[in-house]
Amino acid sequence: MRRKTFAVDIDGTITENGGGRIHLGALNSLRHMKRLGHNVILVSGRSSIEAYLLGVFGGLDTIGVGENGGCITYGSNDHTLLGNKQQCVEALGIIRTKIQNVTEKPVFPRMTEVVLERTFDISDAQKIIQSTSLDVVLADSQYAIHINSAGIDKTTGFKEVMKKMDIKPEDVIAIGDSETDVPLFKLAKYSIAVGNAFDDVKSHASMVVSAHAGDGVIEALDKLAPTLSEL
Ligand SMILES: O=C(O)COP(=O)(O)O
Ligand SMILES: [Mg+2]
Is residue 177 annotated as involved in ligand binding? Predict the structure, then answer.
């Protein structure tokens, strides 16, 4: 059996449709892939510690790629930071001088990024950033707006894991729901967009399923199972 690596988003993908709770059926299907000998790594805009702990308790790989790719957690005292939070904080300050309603989202502490509520037009903020020399990027996961250091996206952190585990892109299967997953779709040989993804996200996926969030993960893995070794 050729070992595959599933790079799996959390919110909007392995959650219950529209809710924040983990879809147990989807988690069970991913755990089955792990039991078959494949890697299943969570890659999220949540903190790397949340992704790591979900991997531990969920029976997946005990690695968490979080902060939209800016931080990887391998253990309680083993984190790799790839972004620069200070420049993200500076960018927040500048955006706030020009746009109203820019508020930080009450999330677990971040080591490399700033996480904002989706209460303003991200394109207005991106225009402000482009007019400055700030080396940051903004991305909307449909659950939060992230300010990350330039060059940081989910593939940045995931590539660190690929190096460490000798994973090749042709063995990666990415599963996600939003624009922040598209870089992973482009890196992976095979990618899956769940039914609640927007059309522009679906346009980048190898497979689009109709079911939403966790139900979509089950639908996709059921469809993939017979031909997984040929992917
Ligand atoms: O942005 C978030 O916090 C949610 O992130 P995810 O959809 O990448 O898991
Ligand atoms: Mg998501």
Answer: yes
> What spacing in Å lies between the alpha carbon of 207 and ligand 2's midpoint?
16
Q: Cα–Cα distance between 148 and 169 in angstroms, integer?
A: 24
Instruction: Give the chain's count of helices (H) and strands (E).
Output: 8, 11
The structural domain count of the chain equals 2
Q: pTM of this prediction? A: 0.97
- Ligand 1: which of 22, 27, 44, 148 to mutate, judged by most atoms within 8 Å of the beta carbon? 44
* Separation CA 177–CA 9 (nearest Å): 8
Task: Give residue 35's identity as a one-letter amino acid code.
Answer: R
Q: Is 168 annotated as a binding residue?
A: no
Q: Which of 100, 126, 149 is the last residue of a domain?
A: 149
Q: Is 78 among the annotated ligand-binding positions?
A: no
Q: Are residues 22 and 64 in the same domain?
A: yes
Domain span holding position 46: 5-81+152-230
Q: Is residue 13 domain-shared with residue 77, that is, in the same domain?
A: yes
Nearest-CA residue for atom 2 of ligand 1: 45
* CA 30 to ligand 1 center in whole angstroms: 18
pLDDT for 44-71, tens place per residue?
Answer: 999 999 999 999 999 999 999 999 999 9
CB 19 within 8 A of CB 149: no
- 6-26 tens-digit pLDDT: 999 999 999 998 778 999 999
Known catalytic residues are 9
